[in-house]
Fold these 3 entries.
Entry 1:
Amino acid sequence: MKQQRHTAIRDVLNQAAIPSQDELRRRLARRGFHVTQATLSRDIHELRLSKGPAGYALPGSAQEDDDDSLPGIREVLGSFGIEVRQALNQLVIITTTSAAQPVAAGIDYEDWPEVVGTIAGDDTVLVICPDEHQARRLKARIEEHIG
């Protein structure tokens, strides 16, 4: 199923520019692949897709940046993170405009034990932690990366 989904993602991106994960998710649903945001984020990472001004692009396409590796969480948070706030067991990361999805995906890929899940908007990421103590520990780590 995963290979078929990856093939469908490649087909969709070869047909048209896809500006957001949500649009990509809708296009996949039309093809019979109903996926969560977390699954789609993993697929984007595994397929090494890049996101430019026109939207998502396949590796080696004209839209892709010359750098052939995805940036690490330090680079992503250092470039796009503005502030992190804690509310009990949850963190809210304020990012630059349109950067919340790459930040959330970067956090998801880190597979940190303090992270239960993420939800991304346009410039805000909600990070859910198991408890307040782990949220505090993760907040300190993210603040170090933001700088």
Entry 2:
Amino acid sequence: MSEEVSVQSRPDRVAVVRFSRPPHNYFDGALIGAIADAYERLDEDHGCRAIVLCSEGKHFCAGANFAAKNPAEGDLYEQAVRLFAARKPVVAAVQGAAVGGGLGVALSADFRVASPESRFSANFARLGIHHGFGLTVTLPLVVGHQRALELLYTGARVNGEAAHAIGLCDRLVSADRLLEEAIDLAHEIAISSPRAICSIRATMRGDLADRVRAATAHEATEQAKLFDTPDFAEGVTAAAERREPRFTG
């Protein structure tokens, strides 16, 4: 197991998968792959019937560090598809920000538990880049096509209460009860018939992993086209300087 990903197996048949890459929990293919490794091990563990995904620190996940490299390079999206291919249900506990690809990680789970202080944002257009991590598929499934367009076009930041209102998160609790509530929801799932849950989940998710694989292939191509543009450079600089970007197109 990676030092950045830990697994806690609980007596209530819930496993807690926790990732940690301070201070912002930026990911790369290695980190996402380590989470997928944990999922696949738990798929074979009959003592686990549901998974809680959480992270250390102030924020759930800030996505990829666009200032460092093009995240579409390497095997990031190959590893991302593995999250969707795992067989057991996942509840994400989302504290602080789930931004960009971090929102994609949160949407790889079956459910999201958040607090009023949580923040969700598909901020790619504000950075001058195409969205990624399968949001083409997952975001419309959760909030509907029109709301997904609005979130992707504007890069708007949505707090926990607004996210709950549009279905972006499923349960809203105080920040101090976030992980507890996620575990409670996972436990509610875990006491159902495990064979029935796996069967129902396979039916309801259908070809989701294959759809995400096709989506990420397209997303990566579009991201590569925009990565070296002046608008992308301006978007990253503006974000670092906490100002409104001045795009030229």
Entry 3:
Amino acid sequence: MARRLTPRAAVVPADPSPPARTPAALLSIASNSALILLKVVAGALTGSVAILSEAMHSAIDLVASIVAYFSVRKAEEPADEDHRYGHEKVENLAAAIEGMLILVGSAVIAFEAVRRLVNPSDVEHLGIGIAVIAFSMLANLAVSAFIARRARATDSAALEGDAAHLRTDALTSGGVLVALVLVQITGAGWIDPVVALLVAAAIVVSGMRIITRSTRVLVDEALPADEMEAIQEAIREFGPRGVVGFHKLRTRRAGAQRYIDLHVQFRHGTTLEAAHATAHELQAAIRRRLRNADVLIHIEPEESVRPGTEIVPERPAPLSEG
């Protein structure tokens, strides 16, 4: 019977020259600054609390973009005497701060919306507001798509959070746009603050998601299951090279960097030089499967193999009859 092949874990290999993160953060700052100005003017002219809530949302995004900008610059600095593992976790800390800023902004929006429901006021010049919000939605969709691509290319937690902010802003802008059109058609002013409350709820969901992702890294959560499988698959492929087992596999992440350390056992008779050379090749094999991987391997003798962790070298599959 032919041997069944186990599919490889779907892990994207490292890009030898990933694009810089700083220009994407600068674009986000410029975009948010322009949109804040437009929304504040439109909100003042129309008196729409939904538009003003959008201006507040963009202001929070601007602060988050500034935090992301400085965090990616810091994260790109090399390791020093005081930070031997580098500064990558600054990105995760920045993403957590961004998430908390989102929650604060949602509370401000909700407060203003409730106040407007209790004390209604007229909404005027809706044409201007509709045009500004439509432009804002399209601009945020375009900028967030660009930043998201950079985030994936560089594994940047800060840029990922920034892109999430802008996507949320674009979605809430779509809701505000619908609300303004309905107010203009029906004259029902209560729609405006109700939509602002919905915007606040959407922002809370986005903020909690960002905080959750960031804190997982800050508390050294292990790498995801597909990446763990990629590491173990790479180790098993070294069975014919004298690797008979491994244990104490530990992984964590800091910003775009992955840290992996493990103990590897070698077959009797393997010289220290041969084991050392094989360990270096295994490190390279893991790095080919996972981008930005810092791999530390501790070499041990065969007697250290723990039951259930043995690696049996694969033998060629026998030819099937017929």
